[in-house]
Prior knowledge:
Blueprint: H1 3-11, H2 18-31, H3 36-44, H4 49-76, H5 82-93, H6 99-116, H7 123-137, E1 141-142, H8 155-161, E2 163-164, H9 166-179, E3 184-187, E4 194-198, E5 213-218, E6 224-226, H10 228-237, H11 252-269, H12 273-286
Parallel strand pairs: 1-2
Antiparallel strand pairs: 3-4, 4-5, 5-6
Helix pairs in contact: 2-4, 3-4, 4-5, 4-12, 5-11, 6-7, 6-9, 11-12
Amino acid sequence: MDRDKLKALISLLDDPDSEILNVVSDSLMKQGLNAIPELEKAWENTIDESLQNRLGDVIQGIQLNHARNNLANWQKTGAEHILEGAFYVAQYQFPDINMADMEREIENIRKDVWLEINDNLTALEKVRILNYIIFDIYKYSKNITDIYSPQNSYINQVINTKKGNPVSLSVIYLSVANRLELPIYGVSLPKNFILAYKDDYKPYNSDNGGDEILFYINPFDNGAVLGKREIEYYISNQKLEQDETYYTPCSNVEIIIQLINNLVLSYDRLSLHDKAEKYKELLQTLN
């Protein structure tokens, strides 16, 4: 649609007829991201609060559809790169962010680790190098001053501030480990999130969940190494029933689902329930 037609369509958003308004909103949504610059101009150039709200709803609707489409395609094509999934979640809130900036950060960390690592090292020695580079050199750490902030779940904000929550810090850690072809995977613990270093030479045994795991890693505690007994203690302390999924790797899709769930909880705690509902809609794309 050319610019004049788009502007004419946007001008109809102040029509009092709800039926016309719905048709116009749907038409604008179909224009996708291309319509946003003109919608934002219209928002800036009006003092009509009602019209601003309508324009804002359309803009958010377009951005939500874009995020849902990207996440659906990411999942459909194998959800191989965890950083990509986290990027699409953040892009809904920050539409101007650049994936290349995030890739550059992860690649810089990877190079620094690669210079120190070699095949003669044990799994534990490799993890110690990873921990040193990520937490001591690049200064990533848990956000203890504002643990429930939504910013802890937006990967661009985590990279900018070097502060995050268990899931987002795990995304950073996994992104680096995957590029180094290390057998490190996410493990979804209730009220927490950790990583597992898997023994690729030991086959998975469904009768003894987690038996193929060498050890666990806690990115929320500077990469502290944990054994299975410590996970068992945590589960017992949380008064949870034992479940195999608490010990075994989860998929990248499950990690992103947990990242979005954290955003829903964060916005609900801030009483921003409309925002939380939008992320529930985004969640439905993966569920």
